[in-house]
């Protein structure tokens, strides 16, 4: 088992976010009656998650990280 002792947690947060996105796509794909997810379905899963939060520098941040 890998240890994150002494490392910044930013990479772990990013990895967890990516795992969550992949999981949401898998759930959407498994509940779809179509063979493939349409682009609109993928956009809905990935882009409609969380409203964009402002960054510390005042610029907007994308909802997926």
Sum up the structure in keywords:
single chain
Structure summary, number of beta strands: 0
What percent strand?
under 5%
Category from helices, strands and their pairing: mainly alpha
The SSE order reads HH
Low-confidence stretches: 60-65
Q: What does this entry look like structurally?
A:
This protein is mainly α and 65 residues long. It has two helices and no strands. It has helices at residues 10-31, 39-47. Mean pLDDT is 74; it is low at 60-65.
Helices and strands in order, then pairings?
Blueprint: H1 10-31, H2 39-47
Helix pairs in contact: 1-2
Summed up, what is this model?
With 65 residues, the chain is mostly helical.
């Amino acid at each position: 088992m890998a240890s994150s002792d002494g490392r910044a947690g930013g990479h772990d947060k990013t990895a967890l976010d990516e795992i969550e996105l992949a999981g949401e796509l898998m759930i959407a794909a498994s509940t779809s009656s179509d063979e493939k997810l349409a682009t609109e379905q993928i956009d809905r899963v990935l882009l409609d998650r969380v409203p964009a939060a402002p960054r510390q520098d005042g610029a907007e941040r994308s909802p997926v990280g």
